[in-house]
Amino acid sequence: MDFWAKTNPRETIQQHTDKLLENIYILKKMNYIKDYKWELLEYAAIYHDMGKMNEKFQLKVSPDGRNVEDNKNNPHSEQEIPHAYLSSAMVPLDYLMDKFDNIEIKILINAIIFHHDRNFDFNEKNSEDRNYIQKELDDIKKKTTKFNYKTIWNDKFEFPYEHYSSSGISRDSLKKFKDKAAYYYRTHILTKGLLHKADYAASAGEMIEYQADFLENSMEIYKNQVLKIKEWNNLQKFMISNRSHNVIAVAQTGYGKTEAGLLWIGDTKGFFTLPIKVAINDIYTRITKTIVTEKKEERVGLAHSDSMDEYIKHSYSDKEKELIEFEGLERYYSRTRLMSLPLTLSTLDQLFLFVFAYRGYELKLAVLSYSKIVIDEIQMYSAELIAYLIIGLGMINNLGGKFAILTATFPPLIEDLLKKECVDYIRSEDYINCEETRHSIKVIEDNINAEIILKKVLTFNKILVICNTIRTAQELYDCIKSCIEEEEQSLEINLLHSGFIKKDRRKKEEHILKSGKRTEINKKEIWIGTQVLEASLDIDFDFLITELSDINGFFQRLGRVYRKRPIEENIDYNCYLYTGKKMYDIRGVGSVIDPDIFKKSREKLLKIDGRLNEKKKLEIINDTYTYTNLKNTRYIKDIEDNIEYIKSNFENFLKESEAKKQFRNILSYNIIPLNIYEKNKDKIKKLIETIKNHKKSLYERTEARTELNDFTLSINASRYRKNFSVEYLAITKYEMVLIYDCEYNYEKGFSQKLPSDEVKEEESKFF
Q1: Is a pLDDT exceeding 50 seen at residue 72?
Q2: Which has more pLDDT, 677 or 156?
Q3: C-alpha distances out from residue 349 to 353, 415, 636, 664, 697, Å
């Protein structure tokens, strides 16, 4: 007799369980995980769905789709017992007592019970609840004689109350076992996490992991045929030599940190993280075009909120412009979400969400426990994200995973925080060229202004201007553009910040990447932007004019000019840094910029005039960003408060969606500017109709969603004004987009329609 597990695709319990066991065998054979009792996972897989034999579930998924008729007098008639609870009662405890100790069995039982996040109003101490469960189990027991799956059966069919914990297994609950606490916690994470992973992979018809056996050879080919060099540099050799260790390495911009990270990962499972999506997309393109050029759909993934959009963009043939079969594209996206690919490029929130210990967090942590994680540009993260990163790296390290921090500047306080979490690592020498100087800085105690920008463009061709707020950037743009038009100059000026709709921002990002490649070195251009230009963008401008945010941010901005070339002897300065006459003259200080760090940065940088080599930059960072120097600042307090908050969290309390909101620490609104909506109203409505229409193919609905997203931008809740919301467009039952009355155009992007008394408050809320 067949017992059904799923309806789409239709699959029996036996078929589904066979797929899980096959995936577990694949993972076990890869030998990523050592010192683990694989039988725990195998038994969890065998029994996890057995409870689906209950009558209510079988009627629900039966081929003829019959409804379940319940006895209305039964207090539980409207509540189906989650199958996982019933499954746990079928585990042959007496038999397993000879194989595992009591805590291992408790881990097994709870992995089965909580392999789905289901609400079940069940009190194990309530006799009525216990009787109801037992009745269901007695009914299932009668059917097992017709079940053909060859395994060990439990004749008792009783719910394992002595091994059940309503809140699941947690770190705190295991601490009492002292010397064995770490072993039990790792066993719990692997058993429950890998059960989730095997279950999801089987349901998606995917492999649990793809073999990581190509990167070392691919890098060697890349070295010989693309870079055309005889050997790797010292940083890259260091990373190869220390593949089995946690590593921290500091190297100047242009030293090959991306290649170093890939060489350190080698032929094992790895993740490469960066703060900004455009930088991740750029590296993904580089890797798939020049390093991993074959079978990318089984080797390299892209994990951020717009991954599918990027996959669709990359799925066109450069020559034929034909889209690959969408089913293959969907499977590629599925592999990425399942964390099944050998190499994944990711934003931090896609990996480190597990620190909130939300329900089901064990999957991500289990995968990272046998992976290598490269953290690039760590200095760009906020205090909150630094806290999550410190806690996360400590947890990954304790479970067997490895990390490498590769960065151009490394605040020493992060080392202090890692040591507090008892994380071991190897610190390399600093890889810098002491003989080469790329930057010469003039510090100006004033506000940034348009006049100096226009003067500099007479001498230098490509000028990069970075402001702390969108408002300042837009004002400079208006002023410069007005001057250019009055003087009838032939000069290109562009603006880039986070307040553009997606399709406009994508065009501008592609434009600045092209401008910054130095293919048209004689073309005069001015690019004005905000913090988004600090990212690891491979651009190289001639002159930087910037406001001060902090030392880290400033040095990051410096990396966008004279990126890989020394400054010429005849150039006095290639950077003007504006600090304001007074501390709060610079917009953003006190809101988005920590005032204590700004003050210390300002004091340190006011002493500089002229050439600044890489060694001196690192000395300034090392002197400024120490724990001792910053211990009384809001920045350190925010880091320590968030670390303490994470440590005090109750496990299995939050839903994953709630954890995502907390991780990003923002409530944002997805909006379409009113003028964009009015211009594209018919198209937008048709796109929403297509998304809602389940008769349309998945490809058509996905492409429609991608097109709809192109008209949107995200604004922080602090910027949202309810009275400017013109219309709410429902996309799904839980998702909508707002039509928002604001100023918007391709040149300048988003700006709020505000009364004059609100302008001052508004200007510091948005980078």
Answers
A1: no
A2: 677
A3: 6, 22, 21, 7, 30
Domain layout of the chain by residue ranges: 4-204, 243-275+347-432+630-665, 439-612, 666-762
Question: Which DSSP symbol is given to 305?
Answer: T
Average pLDDT, the chain: 86
Kindly report the CATH number that applies to the domain delimited by 439-612.
3.40.50.300
**Sign of the torsion formed by the C-alpha atoms of 678, 683, 689 and 691:** negative
For residue 763, the model assigns a pLDDT of 47
**C-alpha triplet 145, 146, 152: angle, nearest 5°:** 50
Structural element, H or E, at residue 309: helix 307-314
Q: Hey, CA dihedral for 549, 550, 551, 555, is it positive or negative?
A: negative
Q: What is the pLDDT of residues 256-311, one digit of tens each?
A: 999 999 999 999 999 999 988 888 998 999 999 999 999 999 999 999 888 887 88
Maximum distance among all alpha carbons in the chain?
A: 92
> What phi, psi does 10 have (nearest 5°)?
-65, 130
One-letter identity of residue 657 = S
Let me know if 733 is exposed, middle or buried by CB neighbors in 10 A (0-12, 13-18, 19+): exposed
Residue 543 pairs in a beta bridge with 463
Backbone angles phi, psi at 395, to 5 degrees: -65, -45
Q: Assess contact for 388 and 663: CB atoms under 8 A.
A: yes
Mean pLDDT, residues 673-694 taken together: 94
Looking at residue 383, its amino acid is: A
Instruction: Give all strands (DSSP E) within 225-377, no chain letters.
Output: 247-250, 270-273, 300-303, 343-346, 372-376
Residues 6+ apart with CB under 8 A from 261: 239, 272, 374, 376, 404, 406
Q: Do 510 and 282 contact (CB within 8 A), yes or no? A: no
Query: What CATH class is the domain 243-275+347-432+630-665?
Result: alpha beta
Share of the chain above pLDDT 70, in %: 88
Is 243-275+347-432+630-665's fold the same as 439-612's? yes
pTM given for the model: 0.86
Instruction: Judge contact between 494 and 748, C-beta under 8 A.
Output: no
| Amino acid at the residue 641 | D
Q: H or E element: which one contains 417? A: helix 412-420
Look at residue 749 and give its three-state secondary structure.
strand
pLDDT tens, residue by residue, 716-762: 766 667 777 788 888 877 678 899 999 999 999 999 886 544 544 44
Yes or no: say if 518 and 540 are a contact pair by the CB < 8 Å rule.
yes
352-363 confidence digits (pLDDT tens): 999 999 989 999
Instruction: Name beta bridge partners: 716.
Output: 668
Amino acid at 718: S
The DSSP symbol for 719 reads G
* Cβ atoms 345, 272 nearer than 8 A: yes
